[in-house]
Automatic annotation (TrEMBL), chain A:
GO terms for biological process: pyruvate decarboxylation to acetyl-CoA. Gene3D superfamilies: 3.40.50.920, 3.40.50.970. Its EC number is 1.2.4.1. Residues 40-215 form the Transketolase-like pyrimidine-binding domain. GO terms for cellular component: mitochondrial matrix; pyruvate dehydrogenase complex. NCBIfam families: PRK09212.1, PRK11892.1. This is Pyruvate dehydrogenase E1 component subunit beta. InterPro entries: PDHB_mito-type (IPR027110), THDP-binding (IPR029061), Transketo_C/PFOR_II (IPR009014), Transketolase-like_Pyr-bd (IPR005475), Transketolase_C (IPR033248). It comes from Brachypodium distachyon.
From TrEMBL, chain B:
The gene is LOC100841947. InterPro entries: DH_E1, PDH_E1_Alpha_Subunit, Pyrv_DH_E1_asu_subgrp-y, THDP-binding. CDD domains: TPP_E1_PDC_ADC_BCADC. It catalyses: N(6)-[(R)-lipoyl]-L-lysyl-[protein] + pyruvate + H(+) = N(6)-[(R)-S(8)-acetyldihydrolipoyl]-L-lysyl-[protein] + CO2. This is Pyruvate dehydrogenase E1 component subunit alpha. It comes from Brachypodium distachyon. The lineage of its organism: Eukaryota, Viridiplantae, Streptophyta, Embryophyta, Tracheophyta. Keywords: Oxidoreductase, Pyruvate, Thiamine pyrophosphate. Its cofactor is thiamine diphosphate. Pfam families: E1_dh (PF00676). Residues 302-312 have a biased composition (Basic and acidic residues).
């Protein structure tokens, strides 16, 4: 089932085919796609995933602002109202607390709602329902009330939208036991993880990224099949390497891959891990990689304090301390509310050169061992 | 009683076998009996139901029994809390029994109920039992939430009782969501979302009511107005304490919540209305004898005279006792015997609950997810305590 995701390309005709289809911006030699010649955007990936899951299970329904007649604020739900009707694709008033609570109540009674937040910044209006009504119910009721709900929408920075519309909520939601938190990067991630989220019996926070919606990625026939899904809690090695591990999720995966290209020209082979799942975090994959490379750079778009990188660093310190040859490096968004001016905004989000610099530091700041010649 | 013309005095029906055996001949007749509610209903943008409520002798006796059981259960919980066998929060319902008992008489188990943290008696109405209730309060493994929830988190999904919520007001949108699911699945059932006069001012209530009215959800919002939101009297919290009118474009009914027959009539009316027309608000004028919770003596913001006045004039159990006696459905001694039996039942249940052990330590890590994918979870010292989530 996971062949497309896991298959590593060797040399030969398959590799050649893949290389011809790749976009010049990133070196995807080790991406592992069995190319069928098809590319889809993340937007199409999400749309088709929603469509297929709604078709397969009549208890799945969509709810959110502008998801119906407007075809979706970002067109993710385009065409679904026409296909499934207003009983299953519901336009809500601008009342997040109300409609999120209604969605969770519907999930209590066994339906499978997919609640869209126009951006996750607005989820804060409903956060009590996500945490106290959804995440904790299965535990408090000792398994009587499970909540098969998905909360999805764009997360993190867009472009020029200012402080109140740019926050990344990965760390906040991943903090809470009882929630699952997913962050797709590619079209394959988007399809596989959204399908897995909708089928999952627990509440899932699904963090998309507005700037990724229009990006195209190659996908195999397997990915396009309606039964496709990806496992929750498993990261993907987007690019194999041996000198330094870079962990990333969502849009930052693309930046990490670009950084890896640049580093490879300097003789540093970076291994890029696409986390895919923030909670559960694939600690095994992260630690296995660090035990191989001995160096780690964590990368995220959100605020640094108490962020995803902090947890990853701690996990590595707990499980693989002796394997580290350098301190763990952290690249994150600036520790300020997002400014508007383009030059300031650029300083507030990680850039490829920041990742490259941190990786270089991790590689040249080895702690000399007593026995080293 | 004033409207004597409407009261039909029936001879108490006694089963011949019972009379022969000398068993208590309390009426179990199901011959209809019509009784007038204590006061008329006040309504908002809807015609109120009739004051004449159809009941039966058997039902009245059941009302007495069920409310007395609840009363005794809550009083026993008070003692257990003072003995430190119940910890944390404990919000008692004594005085308000008629709301849950009357509601249950008007509906079926296919209808859903959700409430806040004053939930012990509603759990009982929905078919819960004393042992699992007391065990949960004391944090034991045979508790209805296996000891993981506590007083505020009783649930009974097989009876469509969805808890048991600690966040004031959150249960109202959740209840509208239950109604959404019922409508989605084209079931002929309704959802009751119970909330207090304190919660009635919550914004999310109005958000959920707006959506429920737009989408015609079969949602019934029931304000259990006991006139105090913790220590704040309704006139200090609400600019308009006419909670049954606060739905604005949504119809409402004000009900004497201490009259179990009025509650039954109102809920029956509301169910029919909700299935046909969408949401409706019921305001139950009720009263709690205890404070907000066991941490609140309940006498710093209201007078003892007020409390004892309600107990004398409006107690729901006493009202039903008077009806039963007036209709000769049982003798005073028979009712007293029933109360003694109830006391014993409650004491036995408490003893049984006290015997049961606390949950296994492994329960710390169960039910975090339905599907844990074998990931690890951690105790305070993860090098010492960790578990794999199934």
């Amino acid at each position: 089932m996971l062949g497309a995701a896991r298959r590593q390309l060797g040399s030969g005709p398959m590799l050649g085919q893949v290389l011809r289809r790749l976009r010049p911006a990133s070196a995807d030699a080790a991406r592992g796609y069995a190319a069928a010649g098809k590319e889809i955007t993340v937007r199409e990936a999400l749309n088709t995933a929603l469509d297929e899951e709604m078709s397969a299970d009549p208890s799945v329904f969509l709810m959110g602002e502008e998801v119906g007649e407007y075809q979706g604020a970002y067109k993710i739900t385009k065409g679904l109202l026409d296909k499934y009707g207003p009983d299953r694709v519901l336009d809500t008033p601008i009342t997040e607390a109300g409609f999120t609570g209604i969605g969770v109540g519907a999930a209590y009674q066994g339906l499978r709602p997919v609640i869209e937040f126009m951006t996750f910044n607005f989820s804060m209006q409903a956060i009590d329902h996500i945490i106290n009504s959804a995440a904790k119910s299965n535990y408090m009721s000792a398994g009587q009330i499970n909540v098969p709900i998905v909360f999805r929408g764009p997360n993190g920075a867009a472009a020029g939208v200012g402080a109140q519309h740019s926050q990344c909520y990965a760390a906040w939601y991943a903090h809470v036991p009882g929630l699952k938190v997913l962050a797709p990067y590619s079209a394959e991630d988007a399809r596989g993880l959204l399908k897995a989220a909708i089928r999952d019996p627990d509440p899932v926070v699904f963090l998309e990224n507005e700037l990724l919606y229009g990006e195209s990625f190659p996908v195999s026939d397997e990915v396009l099949d309606s039964s496709f899904s990806l496992p929750i809690g498993k990261a993907k090695i987007e690019r194999k390497g041996k000198d330094v591990t870079i962990t990333a999720f969502s849009k930052m995966v693309g930046y990490a891959l670009q950084a890896a290209d640049i580093l490879s020209k300097e003789g540093i082979s970076a291994e890029v891990i696409n986390l895919r799942s923030i909670r559960p975090l694939d600690r095994a994959a992260i630690n296995a990689s660090v035990r191989k490379t001995n160096r780690l750079v964590t990368l995220e778009e959100g605020f640094p304090q108490h962020g995803v990188g902090a947890e990853i660093c701690m996990s590595v310190v707990e499980e693989s301390f002796e394997y580290l040859d350098a301190p763990v490096e952290r690249i994150a968004g600036a520790d300020v509310p997002m400014p508007y001016a383009a030059n300031l905004e650029r300083l507030a989000v990680p850039q490829v050169e920041d990742i490259v610099r941190a990786a270089r530091r991790a590689c040249y700041r080895a702690v000399p061992l007593a026995a080293t010649a | 009683m004033a409207a004597a013309a409407l009261l039909r005095r029936l001879p108490a029906a006694r089963s011949p076998a019972a009379a022969l055996m000398g068993a208590r001949p309390i009426s179990d007749s199901t011959t209809p009996l019509t009784i007038e509610t204590s006061m008329p209903f006040t309504s908002h943008i809807v015609d109120p139901p009739s004051r004449d409520v159809t009941t039966t002798p058997a039902e009245l006796v059941t009302f007495f029994r069920d409310m007395s059981l609840m009363r005794r259960m809550e009083i026993a919980a008070d003692s257990l809390y003072k003995a430190k066998l119940i910890r944390g929060f404990c919000h008692l319902y004594d005085g308000q029994e008629a709301v849950t008992v009357g509601m249950e008489a008007a509906i079926t188990r296919k209808d859903s109920i959700i409430t806040a943290y004053r939930d012990h008696c509603i759990y009982m109405s929905r078919g819960g039992d004393l042992v699992t209730a007391f065990a949960e309060l004391m944090g034991r493994k045979i508790g209805c939430s296996r000891g993981k929830g506590g007083s505020m988190h009783f649930y009974k999904k097989d009876a469509n009782f969805y808890g048991g919520h600690g966040i004031v007001g959150a249960q109202v949108p959740l209840g509208c969501g239950l109604a959404f699911a019922q409508k989605y699945r084209k079931e002929d059932s309704v959802s009751f979302a119970l909330y207090g006069d304190g919660a009635a001012n919550q914004g999310q209530l109005f958000e959920a009511l707006n959506i429920s009215a737009l989408w015609k959800l079969p949602a019934i919002l029931v304000c259990e107005n006991n006139h105090y939101g913790m220590g704040t009297a309704e006139w200090r919290a609400a600019k308009s304490p006419s909670y049954y009118k606060r739905g604005d474009y949504v119809p409402g009914l004000k009900v004497d919540g201490m009259d179990v027959l009025a509650v039954k009539q109102a809920c029956k009316f509301a169910k029919e209305h909700a299935i046909a027309n969408g949401p409706i608000v019921l305001e139950m004028d009720t009263y709690r004898y205890h404070g907000h919770s066991m941490s609140d003596p309940g006498s710093t913001y209201r007078t003892r005279d007020e409390i004892s006045g309600v107990r004398q004039e409006r107690d729901p159990i006493e009202r039903v006792r008077k009806l039963i006696l007036a209709h000769d459905l049982a003798t005073p001694a028979e009712l007293k015997d029933m109360e003694k039996e109830i006391r014993k039942e409650v004491d036995t249940a408490i003893a049984q609950a006290k015997e049961s052990p606390m949950p296994d330590a492994s329960e710390l890590f169960t039910n975090v997810y339905v599907k844990g994918f074998g990931v690890e979870s951690f105790g305070a010292d993860r090098k010492e305590l960790r578990a794999t989530l199934p």
